[in-house]
Structure formats: C-alpha cells, structure tokens
C-alpha cells in the first residue's frame, strides 16, 4: 500500500512539474528596448501593440529616455553587462567603441540579406553601421539637418514681423516679440539643460556666421588648431548673449529639456525654436492647431551656411541578450512595410525620413514636412575626417574630451553662468588641440589630416576635393 501511495505521489509530482513547465513555456519572453525617440512614441506604441498581437510569444518592455538620460544612466548598465536587449549607440560614443566593448551582436547572423536589401543604398555604411565590414546596427532614419528653426506664424503676424534672415534681424525680432508678448511669449526657447541641443544650436550659428566648424561633435582643425575661438565663433556668442541680455530668451530655458521646449513652443510661449524634423509629427498629434513654419538659421555673414549632418549608428542587439532571434524579429518588423505601418506612419506624420526604399515617395504628404525638406535642401556637405581616413573612427574611440565642453559653454551662455565665454572657448581650443594631437599619435594618424586646406567656408565639399588632398 505504501509502495502504491509513493508511486501515485511521484506521478502527481511529475504531472505537476510538467504542468508548471508547460505554463512557463507558454509565458511570453520579455524584450527590453531602450531609446530616446520621444517624437514617435504614439507610432511606436501602435507598432508594439501590432507586433505583440502577431507575436504572442514576445512581450515588449519599451523605455524611452532623453538622450542625456540615456547617455548618463543606460551606458553604465550596458558596461556592467545588464543592458537591454535592444538599444542604440550612445551619442557620446561611436560604433568603434561599442564594438571594441563587445556591446552588439553581428546582425547578419540573424537578419536575412533580402531584408537588408530593402534599405536605401549607402545606408548601411562602413564606420557608421558596419565595422570592418560587419553590420552591428541599423539606422533609425535618413540623415537630415536637425538645426532648422521653427517659427510661430501667428506671433510674427501679431508683432508685424517678417521671417528674419540675418543675425541682426533675428535679435531685433526676438526683442520686439518679447516686448509685445509682455509675459505671454518670448523670442527664443531651447532645451537648455540638454547639452546636445545647445551644442547643435551653437554650431549652427557659427556655421551661419561663415565659420569652419565640425558637426556632431566631430574633429576638424583650422590653421592647425581646434577652431572654437575664431571671429565667427565670437559672432555666434554675441548673438546669443545679446538675446539673453535683451530678456528675449524664455525664462526657464536653462532648466528645461528639448521635449519640454518643444511643448512650450507649441503652447505659444516662444516664437523661435531650433530643433529637428521630429517635432512635426509630435505637433501634428498633440497640437494640430499650431500655425508654424520652417526657416534656415539666420545668417551672420554672406558665406554663412548650414552643414548636412553625418550619418550615425542607432539600434543593435545586445551581445548578452538571451533572446537574439526574438530581437531580430523585432528589428525586421520595425522596418517591414507589408505587415506593419510604422515606417509609413512616421513619414506621413512628418516625424522622420525613412531608410527603406519607396517609403518616402509614397508617404510624404505633410506640407510642413515638405517645407522642412525645402529648407534642409539648402544644407551643404562639409569635410568629414572619417571620409578622408576611416582610422578616424578609432581616433574618436581614443580621444579624451575636455571640460568644460563646447556644449557646456553654450549652456553657460544661455544661463548667464559664464561672464567671458571667449576666454573659456580659447582655453578649450588649446586643450582640445592637445587632446586631438595625442589621440592621433595613439592611433597612428597624422594630425594634419584634420586640416582641409582646400575647403572654402560656405561652399560644398565634394569627392573631388577629397581626392585633391591625396
């Protein structure tokens, strides 16, 4: 009898264990996805719902941060081996560093060639998405300048102003608008507590003054020196200082993020905002009544220009993920145009330019998005060190940044925390020049290759110009 009882108990335990294992097997796995794409949140949520409905074995846990939050908090988790299953390359780093740190899996081990063939030609490029020919990341969107200025048409009309085209007109317009607003609205607003936005704004103004300065915190020298204390830089400094001194900057600019600045602009709290294409989709959803336009940054010199942006890496699969196949399924769906509508949605809304063939032509219908394209089409290509020598990707992984950075100094101008910014900029130029020389020596590159002697500021830099340096 005892033997029979033991057999029955054992059978019950086996059945119970099998039932538990079956229940566990039926539970969906959780994919953690982190990024900073706040302007496409509504479309991303819709995509996630569709994806999970079509893939009941996968649950998406999506975390959205600001760029600064991501760079300061998630990077530590990744370095400690606790990163999310899918995440983008931090904007403070580059693909070479991420690959050297073994953060990502080779994507071609999980993504079929027919899928990769749907991307626009040249999109999955060496040094940006690939390292030594191996694909590690996919781009979020097509490259387009993110330093255009949005302006509130109703505020300009109420103040009897035309769209300003020069530094002088821009400062005067900001002052008139602020005085007319009398506490209702101000001239300029920006996400002052986000270093990346202050950096982009400042570089755009230096370029508009005809200055030779790089984009995306890249390296470029003028007369053998980092050009952060030139006359053109002084013009940009004086413009921002003048706007601040006139009281034309939105009062809380120094403490707000870029998304907060975007929202306040939409509420009519300021007439001008320097941001990118992503604003359009957000405003279409949240503020369809907003009457606004797009303009290129005002010019501080006849040879002023706006530079095209350099392509950057984005999303990859974490090398320590337990679910690489599921993560690859997520990526394929995100860019798929047959079953899912995310790519079409972000283009229709004006949020992004798609990197998938045929999507932009079929879905670019937003009139403001077209206006943005027209403004951005005036941007020009400027010299890029990595286009001259791919070893500069290793340089960027090696170079040690100095403080305060250009972005921090720009923040200090907006917050009035710096009295003599040109002194700080001169010291930064000295320190950065030495740091760049050290990094060049460490990776075996001639420092002089950061100099493009045949570049004329304001003129596009072409393949022929690169060839002429050989």
Report on the structure:
Helix content is 46%, strand content 9%. With 470 residues, it is an alpha/beta fold. The strands form four sheets. Strands 7-8-6-9 form a four-stranded mixed beta sheet. Helix 8 packs across helix 9 and helix 18 packs antiparallel against helix 19. The N and C termini lie far apart (93 Å).
Blueprint of the fold:
Layout lengths: L1 H25 L2 E7 L5 H14 L3 E7 L2 H13 L6 E3 L6 H6 L12 H4 L13 E2 L2 E2 L12 E5 H6 L8 H15 L4 E4 L5 H14 L22 H15 L12 H9 L3 E6 L2 H9 L5 E4 L19 E3 L6 H12 L6 H7 L10 H5 L3 H10 L8 H4 L3 H7 L7 H10 L5 H23 L19 H6 L2
Parallel strand pairs: 1-2, 7-8
Antiparallel strand pairs: 3-10, 4-5, 6-8, 6-9
Helix pairs in contact: 7-9, 8-9, 8-18, 9-18, 17-19, 18-19
Task: Supply database-style keywords.
single chain, alpha/beta, D-Maltodextrin-Binding Protein, domain 2, four-stranded mixed sheet, two-stranded parallel sheet, disordered N terminus
Q: Quick gist of this model?
A:
46% of the residues lie in helices and 9% in strands.
Radius of gyration: 25 Å
Elements, N to C (H/E): HEHEHEHHEEEHHEHHHEHEEHHHHHHHHH
Spans where pLDDT lies below 50 across 5 or more residues: 1-25
Question: What helical percentage do the residues reach?
Answer: 40-55%
Strand content: 5-15%
Number of domains: 2
Helical segment count: 20
| Span between termini | 93 Å
Q: How are the strands ordered across the major sheet?
A: 7-8-6-9
